[in-house]
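Below is a complete specimen:
___
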Amino acid sequence: MAPPERVAIAGVPLAVSDYDEVVDWMEAMIAADGRGYVTAAAVNLVMSAREDPDALAAVLDATLAVPDGQPLVWALRLLGHTRATRVYGPDLMLAFLARAAAAGIPSYLYGGRTPEALALLEQRLCERFPGLQIVGRWWPPFRALTPEEEEAVVADIQHSGAAVVWVGTGQPKQEVWMRRMRPRLAAPLLVGVGAAFDFHAGLVPQAPRWMQRAGLEWLFRLSREPRRLWRRYARYNPMFLAAFARQYARQRPRRLR
């Protein structure tokens, strides 16, 4: 099953698509028993990939990267891809789980702040989507896994029979994990959705929709977690603007010929 059209922004190929097309593709991958992994790419992931070889390899090897951040959508549109829309990781997760509940597609949850937070996420998702099958969950510690722990994770996911493994350990950690684990897992899809676990468990509030549409979600999140996030935004937001300005200067003349 071919993924949606992709166009590179700052070196990272991003889907020119929408929720329905991406969810349809995900369902088709599962039906065909394919193997792939998906990332909802924010600006910080795109820019960290320019500095971290492991992150770059993980992003470039992804079967599909969708534009999670509104600035990435604006960049696609400025290059002439007017049908590009935001495919926000938390909303993509909900859109797919609604279909999964109706179709009996089993999911596995990997990530979360604590084991209790992960259990709460499972409870709330099952309340929201009656009939949803969550066949396993695993909370990884905030450090590199030992070989024995990795073997245990693989065995648990394999035994669960999950078709989709949702990964919420933060970018680019989750992308590097998906790339490393992809050859070892039978689940057709691994999907990295970042902060979606915290949002859907009700642990962290989401930015209002108007701020998301205005590209100001980063400001809302910074106001809530300044100590954790200020370095990320202070570094990567200006880097992205500079990188895309150079790309636009190169590609715009060709597009207008």
Summary: Residues 6-256 form one domain. The chain has a mean pLDDT of 91. The first strand starts at residue 6 and ends at 9.
